[in-house]
Design a protein that fits this description.
By secondary structure, this protein is an all-alpha fold. It is built from 5 helices and no strands. 52% of the residues lie in helices and 0% in strands. It is flat.
Amino acid sequence: MLLSLSRRPRLAALYAEVEQVRGDSFRADWRITDLIRHAEACGAPDPGVVRADDGPEFDALQQQVRTTLKREPRKRPELALRGGRAPCNGCVVRS
């Protein structure tokens, strides 16, 4: 997962935006924002190839997601609220 975040940073940010607006988590035990923080603080694997998300296809996807986020959610947001798991449990920040 950390490798995916490194390879598609703009897509990861879009996932985080959805989480923030909807109050839902990416997984029951992790929020994407926790994973992004963990990758930044503890280091993620070298992504090798970073996918450029700066084309019209991604811009269209981002616009669709943001338009959908303005609609009423299909489930009550409080049903999706979870504390998540504390990131970086025992890891050491790399310099």
